[in-house]
Design brief:
two-stranded antiparallel ribbon; binds protoporphyrin IX containing FE; single chain; 240 residues; globular
């Protein structure tokens, strides 16, 4: 099943998994940021509500399309044992089960959000909205998945992309908390606190975690793969 890039000796699926994962994270970040700052409040005469609304919807759908490609290529890449089961059911796989499982949790939440958004006319607004809030949980979970599972976490580009995405979401949270203050102070305080705690966690966890030594082993890569040197990631001195 493995599609090989003759020139580089790498698996095309593996390259695609990495690139589509990065693009999916970027698009999801913009979709979430647009949602956080609240598409309705952001509308101006120059950017009427329907334009902002459709931007939010289309960016979200594009994120789901790239996510589909990301998942498909990771299953097709025969190097790591990832099954369709692992895609939807978290923490049951044999390849970095916890970190890959976070990807599955994020996907399940996003599927619930996407499906209910398509059926919005058929359900009550408050039910739809409550489910839509799951997006706010899916984003940090997806970021943790990328950092814990990705081969490129030590590469400046992926680390830079992850930090940039975090800053975009933090800025959006800040804008949302400030505009309309002091309404719903508790909720705004909780959002600010949650964003701060998550950022602090990343700061403390990354150096001893994915950026530290032996992360492939500690993150749950099967030992047979750790010993394997045929995968392009290990040929390049990266983790398998
Ligand atoms: C919202 C959901 C998800 C997002 C935003 C996301 C994003 C990412 C990102 C940014 C990376 C790092 C890529 C790199 O190192 O260059 C990654 C890695 C990976 N993801 Fe996901 N992912 C999601 C869900 C999933 C799911 C459900 C699966 C299940 C099959 C999956 C499989 C993988 C694999 C196997 C890798 C490691 C690729 C490598 O060797 O570098 N992802 N993901």
């Amino acid at each position: 099943m493995s599609l090989t890039l003759a020139a580089s000796g790498g698996s095309a699926y593996w390259y695609l998994t990495r690139s589509t994962g990065a693009v999916a994270l970027l698009l999801l970040t913009f979709a979430v940021a647009l949602g956080v700052i609240d598409v309705r409040r952001w509308a101006t005469p120059r950017w009427p509500r329907f334009v902002v609304d459709s931007l939010h919807r289309n960016v979200s759908l594009l994120a789901m399309a790239f996510l589909g490609l990301h998942i498909l290529t990771s299953v097709l890449d025969s190097f790591a044992p990832i099954s369709l089961f692992d895609v939807f059911i978290p923490f049951v796989g044999s390849y970095r089960p916890f970190w890959l499982g976070l990807g599955a949790v994020s996907l399940d939440l996003l599927l619930a959000v996407t499906i209910t958004s398509m059926l919005r006319q058929r359900m009550g607004y408050s039910t739809w909205r409550a489910i839509h809030w799951l997006t706010y949980a899916s984003w940090p979970i997806a970021l943790l998945h990328g950092l814990g599972t990705g081969s490129d976490v030590k590469a400046t580009w992926l680390l830079g992309l992850s930090v940039a995405c975090l800053l975009v979401v933090l800025a959006a949270v800040l804008v949302r908390v400030i505009s309309g203050w002091p309404e719903n102070q508790r909720l705004r305080g909780a959002a600010l606190g949650g964003a701060g705690v998550f950022s602090l966690f990343l700061l403390l966890w990354l150096p001893g975690g994915p950026l530290g030594s032996e992360w492939p082993r500690r993150s749950g890569t099967p030992s047979a793969l750790l010993a394997h040197s045929a995968h392009p990631s290990s040929q390049k001195g990266k983790k398998p």
